[in-house]
Predict the structure.
Amino acid sequence: MTANNTRPTDTPTPTSKKPGRLTTVRTWWTDAWKEGGTLHEMWDDIRRVPGAGWHGTANWIKALATITVFSLVVLLLSGAVDVLLDGAHRILTAVPNVQVGDTTSTGVWATIDNPIRSYIATHSASLPISAPTVYTLWQITGLGTLIAGFITRSNGIRLTWLAWGTASIAMVWTTTPATSRTVATAIALLAWTITSAFALRGLNLRPLVVSTVHTGAPQITLQPQIHLPAQPDAPTPDNVRTLGR
């Protein structure tokens, strides 16, 4: 008796091969561009922008545009600030070439300018910036408030102009020798008053009075009445009726 040693062999079932990444990407790309797909709807939103206006534009487009514009503004402001700071640094580093404390001005202007130069040179020794820098900033402040007050008519700028002029006249009074102090101060006051006509253009010191007159329309009440003359020696008519009853 022979034993049957043969055993049934299991045949392997074929397994489905997983699609590759490239095939998956192609399938997603095709489905996305079909009608109702993600990319198809986004492209329709972009095409509707010219006719839809800002309110009709899709929210994702408005958010993207806002972020883009905000980023560009930040970049432009950053570049502008760097340019302005660099220009101000160059101006202020070139300022020490200006001589302060010397009689560099001539004519009538020297009566006002030289005392201011001398005052700034004397009282700026312990400052972290040089006296020429202070003098240049002083000039820029006066010229800037003069022009800005003429253009904008702002009360804050006008107050700055008044403070600048008062301080300038005080410096002229303090620095000028006693023998010529009164005349120099009068010239400075006259020059500042003339220029104030431009810086304080349109300023009116008169109080504004607003009067309101209420003119009520007369009320007229109409009460229609009919008066019948009395008939002497006649019986009272029976067809008389009183109005309103």
Remarks:
- The CA atoms of residues 119 and 195 lie 22 Å apart.
